[in-house]
Amino acid sequence: MEWDPNAYLSFERTRLQPAVDLINRIPNKNFNEIADLGCGPGNVAHLLSQKWINANVTGYDSSDEMLAKAKQTYSDINWIKQNAETFSPDQPADLIFSNACLQWLHNHETLFPNLIKQLSNSGVFAIQMPNNYRRPTHQYVKRAAKETRLFNKLEGLFYPIPVNNPDHYYDILSPLCRQVDIWETDYLQELEGENPVADWTAGSYLRPFLQTLNDEDKIRFEQHYRNLILEAYPKQSNGKTLLPFKRLFILAIH
Ligand SMILES: C[S@@+](CC[C@H](N)C(=O)[O-])C[C@H]1O[C@@H](n2cnc3c(N)ncnc32)[C@H](O)[C@@H]1O
């Protein structure tokens, strides 16, 4: 899918917070090679390079649009076009970090062991995956598709929930890692705007659906989705909107 870095960054502070929280949990030791998988517009790789100032930080992403934005904003980091599924760096990584990317990939049972193989001895695997699939943000995409009779055009884009239960990841990682910490956080995200929750998903989960439809269908579908979302996420008395958003974190040491 094509990303729009500016739409994605319009909620920069809120989208960045889980990455900051994860960075703060990483053991404070020296890393030589740091890989940020699915680095997007590069702001998280930049935080990593500021915390580990002697490390060689490389941001990997499959999107030309995101990499162009990253290159334009941060010149002191290496940016490489790379599918996370086939990540195999020349040097083992001391830290593989990934914020809000691996949920786009649906083969965690093979992907995660392969990523652990790319770590040096005692290397750290630190990832965060959004897990809001059971909430209106995500469920109402299907509902809007059905209610606008566009489901047959969008059907191929729906997939089973890609983020599994924490114990599933524990079973994948514990035979390969000396320490595995997994936790979930439900962020109560405060957003501003007329229909900010719909704007939020338009920058991420909703994008492939909008990109598939012709202009006429797109307007009809998006408008219906926006109406459903506005009803599901009403404004608070101060005019702001709260978006509860669940995220799964994994911190494992090889
Ligand atoms: C939601 S953005 C997260 C960006 C960044 N990590 C952040 O926290 O701001 C997801 C990113 O994952 C990238 N991505 C999705 N699938 C990928 C894949 N198979 N390999 C590499 N990057 C991928 C997208 O291009 C996009 O930049």
Account of the 3D structure:
This protein is of the alpha/beta class and 254 residues long. The chain has one domain: Rossmann fold (3-Layer(aba) Sandwich). It is 41% helix and 24% strand. It has eleven helices and seven strands. The chain has helices at 5-9, 12-25, 43-51, 64-73, 108-117, 136-147, 151-154, 166-173, 196-202, 207-212, 215-232, and strands at 33-37, 56-61, 78-81, 93-99, 119-130, 179-191, 241-253. The chain has a seven-stranded mixed sheet with strand order 3-2-1-4-5-7-6. Helix 2 packs parallel to helix 3 and helix 6 packs across helix 11 (215-232). The radius of gyration is 19 Å and the shape is globular. 37% of the residues are buried. Bound molecules: S-adenosylmethionine.
Assign an overall shape. Answer: globular
CATH class: Alpha Beta
**Could you state the order of secondary-structure elements as H and E?**
HHEHEHEEHEHHHEHHHE
Number of domains: 1
Q: What is the spatial order of strands in the main beta sheet?
A: 3-2-1-4-5-7-6
Helix content: 40-55%
Tell me which ligands are bound: S-adenosylmethionine
Radius of gyration: 19 Å
In CATH, the topology is named Rossmann fold
What is the number of helical segments per DSSP (H or I, 4+ residues)?
A: 11
Based on secondary structure, the structural category is alpha/beta
Unreliable spans are: none
**Strand percentage, roughly?**
15-25%
Main sheet?
7 strands, mixed
Termini Cα gap: 32 Å
For the secondary structure, the number of strands is: 7
Instruction: Output mean pLDDT.
Output: 96
Labels describing this entry:
single chain, 254 residues, alpha/beta, Rossmann fold, 7-stranded mixed β-sheet, 11 helices, binds S-adenosylmethionine
